[in-house]
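Input chain follows. Return C-alpha cells only.
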Amino acid sequence: MSTQTLTIGKALNLGLRRVMEDDAKVMLMGEDIGRLGGVFRITDGLQKDFGEDRVVDTPLAEAGILGTAVGLAMRGYRPVCEIQFDGFVFPAYNQIVTQVAKIHARSRGKLAMPIVIRIPFGGGIGAVEHHSESPEAYFGHTPGLKVVAVSNPVDAYWGIQQAIAHPDPIVFLEPKRRYWDKAEVDTAATPDPLFASRVVRGGDDVTVLAYGPMVKTVLQAAEAAAEEGRSLEVVDLRTLSPLDLDPVVESVRRTGRCVMVHEAPVTLGLGAEIAARITEECFHSLEAPVLRVGGYDTPYPPSKLEEEYLPDLDRVLDAVDRSLEY
C-alpha cells in the first residue's frame, strides 16, 4: 500500500531515504546523525544503509559543516546539513548569509548552491537555553535563501524531497515539538508545489495565518471558535521566502479580517512583513487592522515558563475577538 500513517519525524526519514536512493550525489552531514540517527532520530538507519561517506557524523562545528557543504555543492553534490537545534545555527550564520546565499549571484550564475539546511525550530519541549529558538526572520530577510516550514507529515515527506531537488539553497524548518504528530501519507501521490501556501480550514469571519508548529494551535483555536459560532479560515503559509500570498489575499478580501500567528517575537517578525503586504493588497477590504500574535520581546524563557511565552489557543482567540470588535 502507498498510504501509511507516519509521524513528521518518520516522514522526514523516509523522504531522505527515497531521495538518497534516487540520487547518489545527495549526502547528509551533521552532529550525531550517523550511528545515533540524530537527536530526534530523523536520520535513523541511514548511515547503516548508505555508508559513512554519505551520512557523515561531523565535529561540533556548525561553521565547518556549512563551509564544507559550500565546497561540496561547487563540486556537484547536494549536501543536506542538519543543525542539531535552532540555537546552534548562529555559529554557521556567516557561512549561510555571506557564502551560501550569495555564491550563485557572485559567480553570475555559474555556480549553484543546492544546499538544504535542516533546522528543528520552535519551543515546547522543555529544553534548556539555545534549544527553542525561532530564527526564520533572519534567513527570510536574506536574498539568495529560500525558507520553508512544514507543519505535518505529508509536507515533511514531500517537502524534504522537493527541497533537495531544488537548485537554490533552502533553510528547511521542522517543528520539533510536532515531530511525533501523525497523519496519513500517500507516498505515491502528486505533491503540492513546495513554494505555495494552503488553506487548511475554510471559514468566513476571520482569516488566521500560521506556519510550522503554530498551525496545529490555530486549527485547535478554529475548532473552539466554531463552538461559539465564529468561522475562522486557516491558512498554512508553508513557504516563508518566497511568500505565496495569493490565497491569503483572496481569503482576506472575503473575510475582511486577518490574524497572523507565529512563535517568534512579534517585533520585526515575519508577521510584520505579512501584515504590511496584506494592508497594501487588501486595504479597501479590511474591516480591522491585521493583528499579530507571537512570542514576547524577551529571550526564550526557562522551560518552566515557556507555556506562558508561547502563543496558545486563548491568545489566538483573544486576537480574533479584538478583530471582530472593530
